[in-house]
Amino acid sequence: MNRMTAGAVGAVSAAAGLAAGYRVLAREKCLHWGASAEEAARAMPGDGLLPEPDVATTRAVTISAAPEAIWPWLVQIGPGRGGAYTYDWIENLMGLDMHSADEILPQFQGLAAGDVTALGEKGPRMRVAVLDPGHALVFVSEDHHWVWAFGLYPAAEGTRLVSRNRITVPGNGPVRRLAWSLVMEPGSLVMERKMLLGIKERAERTPLPPSSLLVTNGPEQRSESPYAPAVVTRTLEI
Q1: 3-state class of 123 per DSSP?
Q2: d(C-alpha 210, C-alpha 107), whole Å
Q3: Measured between alpha carbons, how far is 135 from 138 in angstroms, rounded to an integer?
Q4: Nearest to 193 by CA among 167, 150, 163
Q5: Which of 71, 158, 190, 205 could disulfide-link 64, Cβ–Cβ 3.0 to 4.6 Å?
Q6: Minimal CA–CA distance to 115: which of 76, 153, 62?
Q7: How far is CA 34 from the centre of its chain?
């Protein structure tokens, strides 16, 4: 019994030490990979949809391309669409049917506010909450536990693509929070870093067609989505 007790105490101490080390030495870099302090602190579209998250990440990459060259890769993202530009084999182990496209797919360019994409049969259903072509794309899960926002910001070197996740952890007790910090946060960095670099590589090597990808059909229309009542949406053409 003493050996079992000592082993349990040792395991708890090791876990506590690992958690403390991660929070002190690595967590900031994990949550804000590629993002400047200003970008991490800056308000983004969609922040108000989940004002008090348990976890918030802001990650970014510089892309040597204009926003209109990046936007088509964002709007076609998703399972059964353009994929997620990350490690497909990992995504598909979870039944997500991700197949990352290497070209712009015209059939998936007509994304609109209110459209829903399901992340697998048992995963969250993500609704388009904000659609501002060339500027911002925001998804919110229908259970309101996750808001995922993309922002495109002009920079001297091209465009900054910023991805922000705001998440609440259901049943948020100490053990679950520890597990999330030690497993899910680093795991999300691995996948999202690959995604951002995948979008960068595709946008930088794919020339724009002669006509702009951000063409407005008629007057600007206001979104009727209950999640983004004042966001301007436009129809995309290729």
Answers
A1: coil
A2: 18
A3: 10
A4: 163
A5: 158
A6: 76
A7: 14
Overall size of the chain counted in residues? 238
83-128 per-position pLDDT tens digit: 999 999 998 888 888 999 999 999 999 999 999 999 888 889 999 9
The 10s digit of each residue's pLDDT in 130-189 is 999 999 999 999 999 999 999 999 999 999 999 999 999 877 666 666 666 667 788 889
Task: Read off φ and ψ for residue 104, nearest 5 degrees.
Answer: -75, 130
Three-point CA angle 238, 128, 185, nearest 5°:
110
Question: Residue 197 burial (CB < 10 Å; 0-12/13-18/19+)?
Answer: middle
Structure tokens at 213: 């990808």
Biggest alpha carbon distance in the chain?
A: 77
Amino acid occupying residue 214:
L
Here the tokens at position 28 are: 């900031």
The Cα 164–Cα 224 span in angstroms is: 23
For the packed helices 185-205 and 67-75, what is the interaxial angle rounded to 10 degrees?
130
Contact 135, 152 (CB under 8 A): yes
Both tokens assigned to 25: 């030495």
pTM: 0.77
